[in-house]
Amino acid sequence: MTPYNIAFVYKETKEIVFIETITDFVFLVDILMNFRFAYVNEAFEVVTNKKKIAASYLRSWFLIDFLSILPVNLMFQYMIKMPDSTNLANYLGLFKLLRLFRLAKFLKERNKIS
C-alpha cells in the first residue's frame, strides 16, 4: 500500500479504526515518554534534567508527533457533515502521512542504539 493510498484512498472499516485507535494510543504513550527520557546532546553529554528534556523535545519532534496522533477519522466524519468541506477533509489525510515520519524517527533511534 502506498502512502497516498493510506492517507486518501483507503476504505474505513471497523478493523482499520480499531488499529488506528491502538496506534494512536501507542503514539500518545510514546509522546509522554519522550518528555521523560534522557537524551545525548551535541556535546555527547547525557541530559537528564527534566526541563531540558522537555524543552528539547518540544523544539524537535513534538509537533510532528502530536499532529500524527490527531483522530483524523473522527475529523473526517465531522467534516463530511459540513457543507463545502471536501477540500478540507482531503487535507486532513496529510496528517496520516506524518506517521511515516514517526516510522523514520523510530528507525533512526533504533539504529543509534544498535
Write a structural description.
The chain is 72% helix and 4% strand. It is mainly alpha-helical and 114 residues long. It has one domain (12-113). Strands 1-2 form a two-stranded antiparallel ribbon. A hairpin with a 5-residue loop joins strand 1 (39-40) and strand 2 (46-47). Helix 1 (3-9) runs antiparallel to helix 7 and helix 2 packs antiparallel against helix 4.
Helix content: over 70%
Strand runs, count: 2
Report the average pLDDT across residues: 77
Label the structural class. Answer: mainly alpha
Oligomeric status of the shown chains?
A: single chain
Q: Strand portion, in percent?
A: under 5%
Radius of gyration: 17 Å
The description of the largest β-sheet is: 2 strands, antiparallel
Shape: elongated
Q: What is the first-to-last residue Cα distance?
A: 29 Å
- Low-pLDDT parts are none
